[in-house]
Amino acid sequence: MEQVQCQAKAKSQPARRYELDWLRVLAVLLLLYFHTAAIFYSGELGEFYIKNDQLSHAMSCFIVFVHQWHMPLFFLLSGSGTWFALSFRSTLEYVQERFKRLFIPFLFGTLILVPPQVYYRLRSNPNYHDSYLQFYPQFFNGIRPQGNFEWSHLWFVIYLFVFSLIALPLFLHFKGAGAHLLSKLSVIIEKPGAILLLALPLAAIETALRPRWPGFQNLYDDWANFCLYLLYFIYGYFLSSDARFGQAIDRHKSIALVLACTCMLVLFGLWQTDSLPERGYSLEYILYQLLRGVDSWFWIVALVGLGRRYLNFNSKLLQYAIAAQYPFYLLHQTVLVAIGFYVVRWNAGVMEKFWVISTTSLIVTIALYELFIRRNNLARFVFGLKPISSQQELAQPLPASRD
């Protein structure tokens, strides 16, 4: 009987969107190289937990390029996954699943995975000599930047948890009485160029809020990021809710890529010539943020369009990566900081250190997942994974794409 019920539930789920899976997996993998490059970067995006004495211009270019679209893509894909999740879950089931998958790993990660990163940041100061056990109580002494407490890369998890709850009434409205509004929007999106105009609300957020809130992800005083990523999250829901959104992206992916590259060249020109306007509500800075806002959306349209064109296929590698990606995300930065702390002290060049840190971190993170998480139900619980009842379940296909 249980098998029949599971089969019936599987039949009610929408078809899996493999390109969305691939984009999410590749984005998570890219994050490891992004954070490795941050060790060799210094600029307006802030400093990483550890820093190499010799910085790299090439790494800085890589950082500012990826930063333009990477987190927006994460939130867009999460919003798209939310549509899939709500298509076969009740409201209560969805909220319970969000709590288990997001809040519990966030709580666990903040208490266990984040403190080592802060410890290694303090250890980078030659005058700090406390052991880790001596340091751990200090982790709760004040909130960064005044104190040590923070949630590091887990800011994405808590933001996504909050977005999932506050956007839920809107999504339920679109599924019910407001379905006609979503249909009307889909009709508009079919018109030439309309999908590109979705950049304007994003640019408006950047121009109105970024001068006041540059981007410290503390949730309670980060209104530029909060509003921007919430809108990307909602856009992602739209993307999966109606085929016409995807079709519009397919038709505009080439022009979006041209526009994205053009805007990026202008931004690089400003960065390379030290022509960035001072942060504030000046015309120059507002225009700069306007350019950043539209450029990010153009990259998203181009990347999703390319993904739909070239990544809509399944494979054993993808099936493995789908299950591993979330624990990988939670673990990777702690592993990377620990390894990087020692490697930056080597007498070696930037590229040698970059590849040693990134490659070793990749291997160690996957090994931790394989040895301690994949087959252990308690570990799976705190890392946001469903329990397994048999080894065979490790190889079973996953249901429809979702965050």
Structure description:
The protein has 403 residues and is an all-alpha fold. 69% of the residues lie in helices and 0% in strands. It is built from 18 helices and no strands. Helix 2 runs parallel beside helix 16. The longest helix is centred in the middle third of the chain and has 30 residues. The protein is globular, with a radius of gyration of 22 Å. The protein starts with a helix and ends in a 21-residue tail after the last helix. The N terminus and C terminus are likely disordered.
Radius of gyration over C-alpha positions, nearest whole angstrom: 22 Å
Order of helices and strands: HHHHHHHHHHHHHHHHHH
Helix content: 55-70%
Overall shape: it is: globular
Amount of beta strand: under 5%
Could you provide a short overview of the structure?
The protein is mainly α and 403 residues long.
Keywords:
403 residues; mainly alpha; disordered C terminus
